[in-house]
Amino acid sequence: MVICYLLFLELVENSNEGQNYYAERRSINGKGLTIFSQRRYSYYFSKFLQMNFKKPYISCIKEYLENPKEFIIEKIRVLQKKLRLKFVLFGPFNKKKNMEYNVDFSLFIQIK
Asked: What is the DSSP letter of 12?
């Protein structure tokens, strides 16, 4: 989404400012993002950047390109310290041939 790109480039300070800017520039009636899930996603992305990366965010690209595996491993370590497992959901169990099961697995996490 354009708003996430604006946040990443630090052209706007937060998701609300990005949504307002987008609404001004891209719509006649001032209603840029009307779908709630898109608004929520831009807010989550803004918080994700603030919690996990230092400004300027664009410097992360260089770090990633120099050593992608280590960059990802380090970010996972940081996230593990900030997240707490809330509950785990297994199922539904769809029976396959030869007694094998197809399992859907979901983790629900909560930010500390």
From this structure: S
- Measure the CA–CA gap between 107 and 97, rounded to whole angstroms: 27
Q: Is 101 a domain residue?
A: no
How many whole angstroms from its chain centre is CA 28? 29
Say if 62 falls within a structural domain: no
Nearest 5°: the CA angle 13, 36, 72 is 55
- pLDDT of 18 reads 92
pTM here is 0.59
Closest CA to 71 of 47, 53, 56: 53
> How many folded domains does the chain comprise?
1
Region 18-31 average pLDDT: 87
- pLDDT score of 100 more than 60: no
Evaluate whether residue 52 is within a structural domain: yes
- Look at residues 54, 42, 53, 35 and name the one whose alpha carbon lies nearest to residue 18: 42
Is the per-residue pLDDT at 56 higher than 80? yes
Domain that holds residue 48: 1-56
